[in-house]
Amino acid sequence: MKLGILSSGGDCPGINATIRGVGKTALNHFGMEVVGIRYGFQGLLNRDYMPLGDKELSGLLNLGGTILGTSREKPFRQMLESGDSGKLQAVVGNYRDLGLDCLVCIGGNGTQKTAYQVFKLGLNVIGIPKTIDNDVFGTDFTFGFNSAVHIATEAIDRLHSTASSHNRVMVIELMGHRAGWITLYAGMAGGADVILLPELGCDVDKVNETILKRAKKGKSYSIVAVGEGLKLNGTEGNPASRLSKLICKGTEIETREIILGHVQRGGNPSAHDRNLATRLGGYATEMISKHQFGRMVAVVGSQITSLPLEEVAGKTKLVTPDNDLILQGKRLGVFFGI
Ligand code: F6P
Question: Are residues 125 and 274 in the same domain?
Answer without folding.
Answer: yes
